[in-house]
Write a structure and sequence with these properties.
By secondary structure, the chain is α+β, with helices and mostly antiparallel strands. It has two domains: 8-217, Hypothetical protein, domain 2 (Endonuclease III, domain 1); 233-359, Nucleoside Triphosphate Pyrophosphohydrolase (Alpha-Beta Complex). It has helices spanning 8-22, 34-44, 49-62, 66-71, 74-81, 88-103, 112-116, 123-134, 143-152, 162-175, 181-194, 213-217, 274-283, 345-359; strands spanning 233-243, 249-253, 264-265, 268-270, 286-300, 304-318, 330-333. A four-stranded mixed β-sheet has the order 4-1-6-5, sandwiched between helices. The chain is elongated and about 75 Å long.
Amino acid sequence: MFVKKIDKQEFQQDLLTWYDENKRDLPWRRERDPYKIWVSEIMLQQTKVDTVIPYFQRFMSLFPTVYDLAEADEETVLKAWEGLGYYSRARNLHQAVKEVKESYGGIVPKTETEVGNLKGVGPYTAGAILSIAYNIPAPAVDGNVMRVLSRIYANYDDIAKASTRKTFETVVREIISKERPSEFNQALMELGAMVCSPKNPACLLCPVQTHCSAKEEGVQDVLPIKAKKKAPTKRKMKAVIIRDQENNVLIERRPDTGLLAKLWQFPNIETDELNAIHSYIQTLGLDVELTRKVQEVKHVFSHIVWEIDVYEADVKSVENEELYDEQSKCHFISIEDINWYPFPVSHQKIIDGALIKKEE
């Protein structure tokens, strides 16, 4: 519940003056191309700015326009996204861009309904595109903005709840600068990223500290309120680098849906038993000899932790000819070609730590 009223004009002036003087030089801020802003916002979900910058620059060099991305094949898009994680973001973006090409003549729509109906575009991303690119006074409420506003208004509602986000969206519609909505929304985000940090906020440097109830009440380290997530579940995995007599390695494509959909990996199953991975390999049409354990990989997702024991195996015989068909979902490739395929980070670690290292 919001009790305090702030002076909107003074708040806007203090915030925008600070932003004009302190904003970071980020590549997607150098022009108001709605496609580029869209891509940057999708990349920035769950990912830090410093990590996103090189990915964004490479992605734009590969797909500089809506048409370039829409016409690319999915595996090329996933390869360009490799390492950013949350690959459903890339798949949804790819599908949505195709819709923009087919239904909107390649121009990103600029109404809340139309842009909000694009696949993978939620209320925040829609608001960011509309306000930043088109200068429309729409709310763009992300985690940074909720943290700032929770403190400005000393609001104790759980920011993990959808109802709280909607409340903040209503607040932003009320206080947003109608003349400079693009800069206003970016300024709130920037303030959360640079000053009003999750821990130990730099209140003495804050341009809107005189408007802040949390600072006045001394509760800035308590807010915002956010329900704790459950600890991620540990899963024991076994993966195998299988080499044939020509030193090709076997890779398999993950299912079309679910975690890490359509990415490539080394044969990999969830088990704590070594015999289980041997049995799985046999179902692929291979007779192999497991030689040794070569690596342990730990990879943390938001909800699970993979603990992967990595083994090497030599092929004794191949009973399935499709394993040498490049169109097959499981096939041998030369080590030189491995960089053409998109792998999840966990299996990139296997490539770097066990496969390539051995070749060197």
